[in-house]
Structure formats: structure tokens, C-alpha cells
Specification:
Pfam families: PEP-utilisers_N, PEP-utilizers, PEP-utilizers_C, PTS-HPr, PTS_EIIA_2
Largest sheet: 8 strands, mixed
CATH topology of the largest domain: TIM Barrel
Cofactor: Mg(2+)
Bound molecules: phosphoenolpyruvate, magnesium ion
Organism: Moraxella lacunata
CATH class of the largest domain: Alpha Beta
Number of helices: 37
CATH superfamily of the largest domain: Phosphoenolpyruvate-binding domains
Helix content: 40-55%
GO cellular component, one term: cytoplasm
Strand order of the largest sheet: 15-22-21-17-18-19-20-16
Distance between the termini: 75 Å
Radius of gyration: 33 Å
Protein name: phosphoenolpyruvate--protein phosphotransferase
Structural class: alpha/beta
Strand content: 15-25%
Shape: globular
CATH architecture of the largest domain: Alpha-Beta Barrel
Oligomer: single chain
Number of strands: 31
């Protein structure tokens, strides 16, 4: 720490340029007896050699070695320029000069100290500082808390790395850091390289969440790699966060910048590198590798055999797949998590000086013998595939622990109903495309030209799609794809690969994969999903380059079969051509299911990987409401289905004729039918389709339609559209429900291991009260006294309700509203269980069955394989609903259901029977739900609900009620 006092700092000094600032500094140094007036010439000479601007608004002027004779006393003076002074040719402004008077090299230790400050992102603090004390606090790095460290370890150093370009080398370094647990991922496109010497480049990964432990990875390639107009053979990647021990890091830099080290660098062994860097040395574990032969990979049975064998050793045994991270070979779950597939190499390592080393040959033998399963050796063609010069893009077989769905032709196979309706058509299975192309390129100029040509041709095709798209959402998606192909980062990145001798296709594929992987590793799910777009355009260009035809959709309406669907996949579907959707994974409340419902496309999800083996062109019949499908149905089945489809269409038509009538049961019990909206423009259409209210306005989706947080006026304009279209009908607005799987791109959130259990919903807005206050003000202003109902999402504890209510009460003092109801979502089981307590304080409850089910059953609603079991008709969820309704009614309060269950035809009689007062759903379900309610008898529903509460599984409940939708 620098030993500074307030008298060493001068605040609010003014200078119009750098020369003037240096003169003022020299004057201060001289007045304080640190240097003679001639020191100014030394300061100026130093700046003429190179600017002393450090970053973060700090410059460190100091004299040249020749001017040391002017130094009378070693010391430092800090000069603060509130308006800043332009300090270098890039126009960067220095707000703080750390003027150094040093008789020898003391400025180096000051520099180290300041690198700590620089890591703290203090530019604004420095600029806005008002007192010497504030400056001293910042400079001493007191902003950083906690223990600091910086790991330099032999196992983070690699030599002889095979890499074709600098990005590959970077990828190796990132993997080294990941495998050793130093980072959990990387953010965005790779940070800029800084060249430290003629051999060595450096990249800093700075992130407080993704960097688990600050560390250095140093990777040395086998050959020099082209980088811009230079070459680089080694790369230092520094994982940096606020806990970095800057002193240790400065020590590492000293080595990395050392001329002698750099002269030898490319010839040094890992041990020698470790010695230079003073790295911790690895204890060498004996290792042995073997190829896995089991047809279905290391699934539960062989993994159990392996872990049982490994447990015999008292010493540690670890295993890794290919070059991945090591996990304990004794842990079944860890072994399964490896996802090892046939043909991959398992490397075992044994703890030194223990009996574990004796187990290595036993483990190798056991794997070779098939771990209890019959195995066949890998054929020569399979083994030589990688060496053939053709890339093998066959997707790796996926370890399926739940077992595949057995599909028998002509018979019904059941899966999760996601969107009601019948569909019949040819199967169109979207599989990963396999492209064949040579890895080595020919003439570089023509490889580059053919890549440009392919990109241009794809762009032209995309532009046609944009122009002819009937839906704005589709046009937006493909406009974004055109923009990707206009981005030089995307298009020119492949040039390095071509320059290194790769073919255009190989260079393009490697580059797009690298970009997509980086993108996919983002903590923000929305941004991570954009990796799919990169791969999408990447494939289109690859198809053009290789002349391969990517399977085109059948002309007739078809059944789309895919592993899973992203919301963006569904959004770009043309409902006129896609008769139905069948996916291998996913659940009813996954976003893709919600979008499929919104588009009115019948869909079944979570049907197992077996659906991907259905042949293209095979006839498929699906019943999205009942949740079954038939491959190769008989003519009779199709005829029956078509008849049912006709009657289903007729039912829908009839229902739509009476959509504007109320939903009153045969015995006179009325249920309010409302709409869920995520888009303010859809309100009018919902009202025309029978919506009696908006039961849930998902305002986070409204926020997502803006590029940045909408201000009060923008929000007022949005909400006014809804109020106007509602024409006096009530509006239930949910305050911002960000987090979980709904991050807001412009509201950066720290990485969380369990975002659904983290800062989401009310937990987030209570931490950003201004956001909530502005939203409440905008709502009240937009309502102009009309029927407004505000509810808070994700309330789990009474304190949260009180805190949210206090913010609203504060807003209401300045913006009163006398027609306002205030309620809360019931999405967290604790709130449902304590509904008696909450009921005495709220005006209403709205039950979010999507989250309530997820939390009650502990199943991630978006989980690829589990979410099909997150059924809101599970008796546990029904009991929570029953408790909520009973307590609300006891206090004279009303209850709505706004989760997906509200529009589920089989759930409607049960929810009505439980006494739910309002059902809120997507526009497409309103007319039919109203028709269903009109056919019901409330007393029968109450009896049915009782029976459902006594059931022991969701299946039993569903069996009580038969859907009539198809
Ligand atoms: C719910 O959880 O049921 C709900 C309606 O909220 P969302 O689906 O937006 O999380
Ligand atoms: Mg919810």
C-alpha cells in the first residue's frame, strides 16, 4: 500500500493540455521539496518516449533515468483534474496524475500497486472523487475485499500444443483453465491480444463471476502462428478478478516481459517454464488410457461396474474423457456426467504412493472387457475416420439414461401434450447435417473468393425470406441472420484459417464453431441461445460451399420432428406448412411449447430420442391435446382422426361464434376468462376473441421489446395501448419478473448456479427499487383511474410482500389511485402453504402454475428430459391450489390461475371445482375454454376436484377427466 496522506493529494486542479499539467505537477513536486524545477524536463522526456497513461483515468508521470539527479527525495504526489486532461494520441483523458519522484526503480512497485487499482474498475470513482481521502481509498485498492490470490501452477502450462491458428491456441488455454477449475466459462468474443514479445501474446479474461480463481495459463504451440502481420507461438491467458493478487500478477508480468525468458520461451519444457515462473509443481500421477467400446457409451450399468471396481482402492482414482476434466472414478454420478461415448478415450490417473496405482491395469482391463456388457472392437474405418482428411460431423450418440421411447409403427406412442389439435402429414426430421469437405485448401485467394461468394449467396437468399416474411417476428430473425453475415468478425475471422492452408469450408466451420461456443458459454441464457443463430447461418454457408443440399421442407403440410425447439425456431415456423411438431425433449411449460400454443400448431414434446429415427416422408399422425402420436398410421386411423379433426375444427368454430358470451356453468356458476399477454399490441385481438380481462401482462416481455430499460414515458405509452384496447375491462399487470430463464439483455445479472432459485422476480426488483418504482408510476399514470390490478411475482416470504407493498405505498402517496387492487402471484410453495397469512393482506391471488409446479416437484420447467413430468395436475400442486383458494375465499378475496394449466382442457373442470374465480390463458384457448365451462356442472366439478385431491399421481388425475378437444 502506498503511504499517502491527504497533503500528498491536490484536488480540482485545472489544465488545458498535457504540457500544462506536467508543468503544474513539476511545480508541486518542487514546492514540496521532492525534486528541483529541472525535473520537468525529465517528465517531458519520458512522455516523449511513451505515454505514461495507465488506464482508468490514471497517468503516472515520472522522470527519465537521466533526470534522477533532480530528485531530492523519493515520493509521490497525486494531482486530480476534475475535467481531465487528454493524455495520449487516442484521446484518453487522465483525471489523476500519480507523479513519481524516484531516485532508483521505486516507480515499479508503485506501478504494481496501481495495477491492483486498475483491476477494480475505478475510472468513474476517480473522475468523480471530491476529497483527497476518497482518492487515497481508491488508490490503495480498499475497494477490493477479501483474500487475494494468483495461481501459477505447472498444470496450467502446456507446450507442444497443436494449433492451426491463434484462436485454437486461445481455446486450448481456456480449456486448461476450465479443466483446472480456474474459470467456469468465458464471456463474448475473445478479448483482444496484446503482444508481449515476438513470440508471446497475452489475453486477459477479466470477470468476477466466471473467473473462479485468478490464474495464469501459458500455452506454447508447436509452430509459430500468424497473427495480423506478425507471428506468435505462445499465449499467456490471465484469468483475473477482483481477488487477484496484483503483486503476484505483477511478478508474473516481470517474467513474461523478460527478454531472456522470451528468447528461450519456445524451446522450454513445461518444467523449465514452471521454474521461470516460480510455478507450483504438479505431483505426478501415473496415468493409463483406454478406448471405450460400449455401444451406448458409459451409461448407468457399465458406469456402476467401473465405480465399484475403483472403490476397491483406498487412494484416489480419477478419469477424464479425451482431454476433458478429471472426475473421481469412484463416483457413479460423476462418471455418468462425463457422457462418454463409444470410441472416446478414457484416461485414468492414480494418486501417487497409494494402492491406486495398482488399480490402473485392472481398470483398463475392465473397460476393454466391456464393464459387464458385450462389446465389439472399433472397426478400422471408424478408427481411421479422423485421420482421413474428411471431417466427421456425425453427432455423437447421446447417452440416454431414461431409455428410448419404443415406437411401434401403427400404434399410439404417448408423450407430453404441448399444444392441442390434430395433425397428419409427412415426417420432416431435422437432424444434424453432415458436410464432407477437404480440410486442406488449394489456392488461398480462390478459397477466400469462394467463401465470399457463398456468404453473398446465402445473404441474398435470406434477404428474400425477409422481404416475403408474413410475420414481423420471422422477418426480425432473418434480418438478424443477414446482420451476422455482414459482421466482419463473423466473415473475416475465417481468413486466418485459409491463410494457414485450410479449405474455405474447414476454416469457416472452425471459425463459426469457435464463435458459437464462446457465445453459448454466456451466463445470460438469451444471449447464449444466439449461438444457434450463428450455427444456423454457418450451416447455410457450409451447404453452399460444399454444394450439399440441406433437406428442404416438404411442400405439403408436414410434421416437424426435432430434438428440441428454441422459441426462435418455433417463431420462424410457418403454421401454414407445419402441421404439427414432435420433439424428443422438452415439457409442456417450456417456452417452445408456449410459443407453439400461441401459433396454434399442435405439438407433442418430450417423446424421446427415438423420434429422430423416424424416416423422412413417413406418415405421422399426432394428437397434441391427448399427447399421442402414431407413425405409419393405418388408413382407418387417419380417417377416424380426420373425422375427429373435422369435429374439432367445428367445435372451435362453434366456440368462436360464442366467444364473446360469458363462461357460466350449466348450474349458473361464472368463471372469468382472461388472456395472458406478453405484447401490448395483441390486446385488441384477445378482446375480439373473448377475453374478459387481461389476467397476466408479462411486463418483462414488454421490456424485452425495447433495446434498453424503457423510461416512464415509454412505459406509459405501452400500458396505455393495453388499457385503451381493453375499453374498461380489468388489467392485471405483473411487475417485472426478470431472472430464471428470462434475463433482460440490458440488465446485467451476475452468473448464478441456480438462476431459478436466485435473484428473480420480486427479489430482483426489491434490489433495484427505482426500476419497480418507475414501473408502478408508469402503470398508475397510464391507467388514468381505470381498473388496474397490480401483482408482484415470486413472493415467497411475507417480508417480500411487505417490502414490495411499501414501495407501492410510497408511490401512491404522490400518485394516488382509487380503483387499484394489489395482489401477488402464488408461484412459490411457501406462499401457497401460508395463503391464510397472505390472504388477510392482499386483494387477490393469481396462481402461476408453471412455477408453482416447478418448485413443488423440484423439476426445472425447461429441463430437456425431466420437464415432461412437471405436470400441474399433480395432486401436490392441486392441494396447494386448494389451500390458496380456500383461504382467499375465507377472507373474501378472489383467485385466478394464469399458468399454462388454466388453458389445459383436462384441468379446467378441476380448477373450476376447486373454486378458482378466473382462468387466464393464451388468446387461442379462450373461446374453447369458455365453451368447455358452459358444458360443465359446478357441483360435478367440485366432486371431481375432491377426487383429484385424493389421487396419488398426475396420471391418476388425468385419467379422471377426458379431453374432448380432438
Ligand atoms: C407461472 O409461473 O405460471 C407464470 C404464469 O409465470 P411465468 O410463466 O411467466 O413464469
Ligand atoms: Mg412464473
Amino acid at each position: 500500500m502506498l503511504n499517502l496522506t491527504a497533503t500528498d493529494v491536490r484536488m480540482n486542479v485545472q489544465a488545458t493540455n498535457k504540457d500544462e499539467a506536467l508543468s503544474l505537477l513539476a511545480k508541486i513536486l518542487s514546492e514540496d521539496g521532492l525534486a528541483t524545477a529541472d525535473y520537468l524536463a525529465g517528465l517531458q522526456a519520458r512522455e516523449a518516449q511513451t505515454s505514461t497513461y495507465l488506464g482508468q483515468g490514471i497517468a503516472i508521470p515520472h522522470g527519465t533515468p537521466e533526470s534522477r539527479s533532480c530528485v531530492q527525495q523519493t515520493g509521490v504526489r497525486l494531482v486530480h483534474f476534475a475535467d481531465g486532461v487528454v493524455w495520449n494520441d487516442d484521446g484518453e483523458r487522465a483525471y489523476l496524475l500519480v507523479g513519481i519522484c524516484a531516485k532508483s526503480d521505486e516507480h515499479l512497485s508503485i506501478l504494481r500497486q496501481l495495477t491492483r487499482t486498475l483491476g477494480d474498475d475505478v475510472a468513474d470513482d476517480i473522475k468523480n472523487a471530491k476529497t483527497p481521502e476518497q482518492i487515497i481509498t481508491i488508490i490503495n485498492g480498499d475497494k477490493a475485499h477479501g483474500k487475494t490470490s494468483f495461481v501459477v501452477h505447472e498444470n496450467l502450462l502446456k507446450t507442444e500444443v497443436v494449433a492451426n491458428d491463434i484462436d485454437e491456441l486461445y481455446g486450448v488455454a481456456v480449456n486448461v483453465l476450465k479443466n483446472q477449475g480456474k474459470i467456469t466459462g468465458v464471456v463474448g468474443i475473445r478479448p483482444a491480444f496484446v503482444q508481449l514479445s515476438s513470440h508471446l501474446g497475452c489475453v486477459t479474461l477479466e470477470h468476477d463471476e466466471l473467473v473462479a480463481e485468478p490464474a495464469l495459463a501459458l500455452v506454447v504451440a508447436k509452430k509459430a502462428l500468424a497473427w495480423q502481420d506478425k507471428t506468435v507461438q505462445a499465449l499467456a491467458v490471465i484469468a483475473d478478478n477482483r481477488h487477484t493478487d496484483k503483486q503476484a500478477l505483477a511478478g508474473v508480468y516481470d517474467v513474461l516481459l523478460n527478454d531472456e525468458f522470451n528468447a528461450k520461451l519456445t524451446a522450454l519444457s513445461v518444467g523449465e517454464l514452471a521454474e521461470w515462473l516460480g510455478a507450483e509443481r504438479a505431483v505426478h500421477w501415473q496415468s493409463a488410457s483406454v478406448v471405450l467400446l460400449n455401444a451406448h457409451g458409459l451409461h448407468a450399468r457399465p458406469a456402476t461396474a467401473l465405480s465399484e471396481l475403483a472403490k476397491g482402492a483406498t487412494g484416489e482414482l480419477k478419469v477424464a474423457v479425451d482431454n476433458g476434466a478429471y472426475v473421481s472414478a469412484k463416483s457413479l454420478t460423476k462418471l455418468l456426467s462425463l457422457g462418454a461415448t463409444r470410441g472416446q478415450s478414457l484416461t485414468f490417473i492414480a494418486e501417487p504412493n497409494t494402492d491406486a496405482t495398482e488399480y490402473l491395469p485392472k481398470l483398463i482391463q475392465a473397460v476393454q472387457d466391456g464393464l459387464g456388457e458385450e462389446v465389439t472392437p472399433i472397426s478400422h474405418s471408424q478408427a481411421s475416420n479422423q485421420k482421413s482428411g474428411k471431417e466427421n460431423h456425425e453427432p455423437a450418440p447421446v447417452l440416454d439414461l431414461t431409455g428410448n421411447t419404443v415406437i411401434t409403427k401403427g400404434e399410439r406412442t404417448h408423450a407430453t401434450s404441448a399444444s392441442a389439435g390434430l395433425a397428419h402429414g409427412e415426417a420432416f426430421v431435422v437432424r444434424q447435417v453432415r458436410f464432407d469437405y477437404p480440410v486442406q485448401g488449394g489456392d488461398k485467394a480462390s478459397e477466400w473468393a469462394s467463401l465470399q461468394q457463398a456468404i453473398g449467396a446465402v445473404k441474398d437468399e435470406l434477404k428474400v425470406i425477409v422481404q416475403t416474411a408474413k410475420k414481423a417476428s420471422i422477418a426480425q430473425i432473418f434480418t438478424a441472420h443477414v446482420a451476422l453475415l455482414d459482421d466482419e468478425e463473423v466473415t473475416h475471422g475465417a481468413k486466418d484459417g485459409i491463410d494457414d492452408g485450410l479449405s474455405a469450408a474447414a476454416a469457416w466451420h472452425a471459425h463459426i464453431e469457435q464463435l458459437a461456443k464462446t457465445q453459448a458459454s454466456l451466463a445470460n441464457r438469451l444471449l447464449a441461445e444466439r449461438a444457434a443463430d450463428l450455427r444456423d447461418v454457418g450451416q447455410k454457408v457450409l451447404a453452399k460451399l460444399t454444394g450439399q443440399v440441406v433437406a428442404t421442407e416438404p411442400d405439403e403440410p408436414y410434421v416437424l420432428i426435432k430434438e428440441d425447439l428454441l422459441p426462435s425456431d418455433v417463431a420462424r415456423l410457418d403454421p401454414a406448412r407445419v402441421a404439427g411438431i414432435l420433439t424428443a425433449v422438452g415439457g409442456a411449460s417450456s417456452h417452445s411449447a408456449i410459443v407453439a400454443r400461441a401459433l396454434g400448431i399442435p405439438a407433442i414434446v418430450g417423446a424421446g430420442k427415438g423420434v429422430l429415427d423416424i424416416n423422412d416422408g413417413e406418415q405421422v399422425l399426432i394428437d397434441g391435446g391427448q399427447g399421442w402420436f402414431v407413425v405409419a398410421p393405418t388408413d382407418e386411423m387417419v380417417a377416424v382422426a380426420k373425422a375427429e379433426q373435422a369435429s374439432w375444427a367445428e367445435r372451435k368454430r362453434l366456440a368462436s361464434e360464442t366467444a364473446l358470451n360469458p363462461a357460466i356453468t350449466q348450474d349458473g356458476h361464472q368463471v372469468e376468462i382472461a388472456v395472458n399477454l406478453g405484447n401490448v399490441h395483441d390486446t385488441k385481438m384477445a378482446v375480439e376473441n373473448g377475453a374478459e380481462a387481461v389476467g397476466l401482462l408479462r411486463t418483462e416481455l414488454v421490456f424485452m421489446s425495447h433495446q434498453s430499460v424503457p423510461d416512464i414515458d415509454t412505459q406509459v405509452a405501452d400500458y396505455t395501448q393495453v388499457f385503451d384496447a381493453l375499453d374498461g375491462r380489468p388489467l392485471v399487470v405483473r411487475t417485472l419478473d426478470v431472472g430464471g430463464d428470462k434475463p433482460l439483455p440490458y440488465l446485467p445479472m451476475p452468473f448464478e448456479d441456480n438462476p431459478f432459485l436466485g435473484v428473480r422476480g420480486i427479489r430482483l426488483t426489491l434490489r433495484q427499487p427505482a426500476l419497480l418504482e418507475n414501473q408502478l408510476i408508469a402503470l398508475i399514470k397510464a391507467s388514468k383511474g381505470r381498473d388496474l390490478r397490480i401483482m408482484f411475482p415470486m413472493i415467497g416470504r411475507l417480508e417480500e410482500w411487505h417490502d414490495a407493498k411499501a414501495i407501492l405505498d410510497k408511490v401512491l402517496t404522490d400518485h394516488p389511485h382509487d380503483k387499484l387492487q394489489v395482489g401477488m402471484m402464488i408461484e412459490v410453495p411457501s406462499a401457497a402453504v401460508m395463503a391464510d397469512v397472505f390472504a388477510s393482506e392482499v386483494d387477490f391471488f393469481s396462481i402461476g402454475t408453471n412455477d408453482l409446479t416447478q418448485y413443488a416437484l423440484a423439476i426445472d420447467r425447461g429441463h430437456a428430459t425431466l420437464s415432461k413430468d412437471a405436470d400441474g395436475l399433480h395432486p401436490s400442486v392441486l392441494r396447494l391450489i386448494q389451500n390458496t383458494v380456500a383461504n382467499a375465499h375465507a377472507h373474501g378475496k378472489w383467485v385466478g390461475v394464469c399458468g399454462e394449466l388454466a388453458g389445459d382442457e383436462r384441468a379446467i373442470p378441476i380448477l373450476v371445482g376447486l373454486g378458482v374465480d378466473e382462468l387466464s390463458m393464451s388468446t387461442g384457448s379462450i373461446a374453447l375454454t369458455k365453451a368447455v365451462v358452459r358444458e360443465l356442472n359446478f357441483t360435478d366439478c367440485q366432486y371431481l376436484a375432491k377426487k383429484a385431491l385424493a389421487c396419488t399421481s398426475a396420471g391418476e388425475v388425468r385419467a379422471l377427466t377426458t379431453a374432448k378437444e380432438s
